[in-house]
Amino acid sequence: MKEFTENPYIIRSLYILPDEEPVVKYLNGTEAQMEELVHGKIASAGIEEGVCVIHNALSELLKMTENRVIDGTQFYGPMIVVSFDNVGNIISLTEDDAEYFAEQFALKK
Question: What is the pLDDT of residue 8?
Answer without folding.
Answer: 55
